[in-house]
Amino acid sequence: MSLFKLNSRPTFFCKLRLSARSYANDVKKTKLHEFHVRHGGKMVPFAGYMMPVKYADSIASSHLHTRRQCSLFDVSHMLQTKIHGKHREQFMEQICVTDVQNLGMGKSALSLFIDDQTGGILDDLIITKTNGDYLYMVTNAGCKEQDMRMLTEQLSIFKSSGQDVSLEFLDSDEQSLLALQGPSSAGVLQSVVGKSTDLSGLYFMDSTTATVCGVPDCRVTRCGYTGEDGFEISVPSDRVEAIAESFVAHDDVKLAGLGARDTLRLEAGMCLHGSDISIDTTPVEAALMWTISRKRRDERRFPGASAILKQLSDGARRKRVGLVQKAQGAPVRGGAVLFNPVNGEKIGSVTSGCPSPTLSQNIAMGYVDSRFVKNGTDILAEVRGQKIPMVITKMPFVKANYYSKPK
């Protein structure tokens, strides 16, 4: 039985884009705040932290530099967690959809927290089976408090039957997280990890510990949200500024902020939590069923299994799709209503949209009635009373360049 059946559903779900007023009294700063300011970062409140939205370069320029060379992102606002104990893998399988017990040593996987009653997505996360005696997990900043509360509550239930497991939430004041993304990232990182770690043998979604810029025991995971080769690097916060300075001293590396992060993610066809996925969205609708292994589907024991497998069998009424704007002009943004051009029927809505610096055209993601998901289908988006022609397209919009193990 999933633990979510034993506990009440969360009562709120975080939006990714948050107003300054939301954090007027309790906004936090990462340990790189002064570093960002010194390097010209334009700071804005985001998910409870002051974060750089851009630097001196435009968002488009920063975006393209990431695609062509390499950019450094501060993602220390995200929640890092270690799960300890003999039954840590069983505990995680009670609260996420991944087959954790059969995950390879030193391997990471994208997973989901699911509401057991509705099958709706609570949050997405990356879970890693480390070579040590713990699991390592990274979850979204916008849902940090929600996730910590849920994990703590479910831990209490799980341990009540005598199971051995404990949680260690890594405070951003103690542990920071950097993302080095782009085709030059491996060469840049290799230059600071030395000969003790050969990154050529570390493939997409592999994780290890390494000495980075002379700092031992940093967790290095080959992953990211840009569609390019890249790494997330967990480092002690008292050394993060020196490490960041070492990276940006490299000719290929520039700093990038939230603006470039969002446009890169959208081109990569990745969900922006709170806009593209939420409690109202199932993995079937969000095109994320690949996160649930065949073994877990066959066992029907993952959170939300009943609702999700029924929807998978019966068919979802709507699906997440890519959208390309056919006409020039301002991009269609989240919230725009989508229509059937033949009879004016409302068929869905846009969840996120932006100009694509790589493609030089406007792109978006949204949910449409399942009758309209075929690539090449023409639809209309309403913006300020005007109907904008759009076409359904496959995702990712830009081909991924992950460093994968040869088959």
UniProtKB/TrEMBL annotation:
Protein EC: 2.1.2.10
List ligand-binding residues for substrate.
Answer: E232
Q: Where in the cell is it found?
A: Mitochondrion
Ranges of residues in domain GCVT N-terminal:
32-295
**Keyword terms of this UniProt record:** Aminotransferase, Mitochondrion, Transferase, Transit peptide
For this protein, what reaction is catalysed? N(6)-[(R)-S(8)-aminomethyldihydrolipoyl]-L-lysyl-[protein] + (6S)-5,6,7,8-tetrahydrofolate = N(6)-[(R)-dihydrolipoyl]-L-lysyl-[protein] + (6R)-5,10-methylene-5,6,7,8-tetrahydrofolate + NH4(+)
One Gene Ontology cellular component annotation held by this UniProt entry = mitochondrion
Stored NCBIfam families = gcvT (TIGR00528), PRK00389.1 (NF001567)
Q: What is this protein called?
A: Aminomethyltransferase
